Amino acid sequence: MNSTLSPWNELPARLLRSVGVYRHGIASLRQVDDQALRQYTDWLSRGMHAGMDYLERYPDIRRDPRMLLDGATTVISCAFPYFTPISRTHGTANIALYALGTDYHEVVRNRLEQAAEAIRDTFGGQTRVCVDTAPLRERYWALHSGLGFIGTNNHLIIPGAGSYFFLGEILTTAPFRPTPPLPVTDCGRCGHVPPEPSPRAARSMPANVSPTSPSSTGAISPRAPTCMDAFTDATVALRCARTMPTRRTPTSPNSCPDPNCSPSHPPTSLPWMPQHSPAHSGTQP
Fold first, then answer.
1. Catalytic residue positions?
2. Contacts of 34 (CB under 8 A, 6+ apart)
3. C or N terminus of the chain, fewer CB within 10 Å?
4. 27, 79, 75, 31: which is closest to 173 by C-alpha?
5. DSSP state, residue 168
6. Mean pLDDT lowest for which of 111-115, 208-212, 260-264, 277-281?
7. SS3 for 223?
């Protein structure tokens, strides 16, 4: 009887759940594909990054994240929920939900460092934790790891859970079995999203979403001008009651034919986010 050892390690989900990860995906590291590189380069050349020059830096690392950790073979994409139901009191500041708690860069990094240490102790090798500040294409690798799909708002949408998530990654030299990407979805074109005031929303592609829209950096940075067309495009995915549980009402549409959009319940926020309080007011960033 012949037996062959698998070249892959199996990552226990409980290891990541113990530090607060809601869902994760695994991808084998390689160079970013040519089409994604062209889209990103074109996005920059059109000035869609709203003057955030750091998005132009380290193009070689953005192309090949293996340069972030010598010998890295695997990226583990992790999602941490931040949705918090809060009252919107008249006269109070309307602050984006993700900004209400402790700086997520610190919290997510600390939690992922705990998971990375456990991975090194169990499987050996080296690790590096990335949380937003490294030149890593977070949504690209989350998409290729099967964590979710990209909506018309250019956010990663986790089926049945929505997009109220912080993303963080663990790069490791230990080989883990990849999780398959989700089937391609056509977000916003299923016919079950409430009509939008602009016909451009129906033609929107994620590459057209700019941080200059009030739904993104424009809402938190006074440097960025506003663009209502981009805002209209971005809201299509946010209004989908199938993939965004926080948008559901007894009469909201819930019959999207896409098998990726299975209904669920919005995940609860982690301890660093504030509890429900009429003293706070928030909106979808």
1. 132
2. none
3. N
4. 75
5. E
6. 277-281
7. coil
